[in-house]
Amino acid sequence: MATVTMPGFMMVLVVAAGGAIGAVIRYLISLWVGAGLFGISGPLATLAVNIVGCSLMGLLAGAIAGGFLLPDAWRGFIAVGLLGALTTFSSFALDAGNLIQRQGVYMAATYVAVSVLLSLLVFALAFALMRSVMGTQ
């Protein structure tokens, strides 16, 4: 069965619309959780959006893998736009899950470890560089 694809610019608009909605949802969750509703604030908002986003990405990927036909426009809107803006962790989890299925747990674990460690390392280096450039050691 052939898939119907959208012209490039239309797909960009669809992804952007999903991204706008995902960003607003993330902001609202951060206000709700960050308000200390559970007596704790801080990284709980990030944890909450990561859990929600990964759960939704898992449901979507499982449905598609199970044969659910979803047009490219809806995939772009939901997976790339909405969930991508809600949390980039959902894409990270999808990539790791795909690696487990295609290349095994070892490759997925390597990807996860390298991604997390390198991300933290470059963040720390960039942070230190900017503090140094700005003279705020």
Automatic annotation (TrEMBL):
Q: Where in the cell is it found?
A: Cell inner membrane; Cell membrane
The answer on whether this UniProt entry bears the keyword Metal-binding reads: yes
Catalytic reactions on record: fluoride(in) = fluoride(out)
Q: Mainly resides where?
A: membrane
What name does this protein carry? Fluoride-specific ion channel FluC
Gene (name only): fluC
Taxonomically, the superkingdom here is Bacteria
In terms of InterPro entries, this protein maps to: FluC (IPR003691)
Query: What biological-process GO terms show up in the record?
Result: cellular detoxification of fluoride
Q: Where does Na(+) bind?
A: 84, 87
An example Gene Ontology molecular-function term: fluoride channel activity
Q: Which UniProt keywords apply?
A: Cell inner membrane, Cell membrane, Ion channel, Ion transport, Membrane, Metal-binding, Oxidoreductase, Sodium, Transmembrane, Transmembrane helix, Transport
Q: Name one GO cellular component term.
A: plasma membrane
Q: What does this protein do?
A: Fluoride-specific ion channel. Important for reducing fluoride concentration in the cell, thus reducing its toxicity.
Which species is this UniProt entry from? Answer: Puniceispirillum marinum (strain IMCC1322)
Topological type in the membrane: Multi-pass membrane protein
Q: What does its activity-regulation comment describe?
A: Na(+) is not transported, but it plays an essential structural role and its presence is essential for fluoride channel function.
Name the HAMAP family for this protein: FluC
Parts of the chain that traverse the membrane: 12-35, 47-70, 77-94, 106-129
Family assignment?
Belongs to the fluoride channel Fluc/FEX (TC 1.A.43) family.
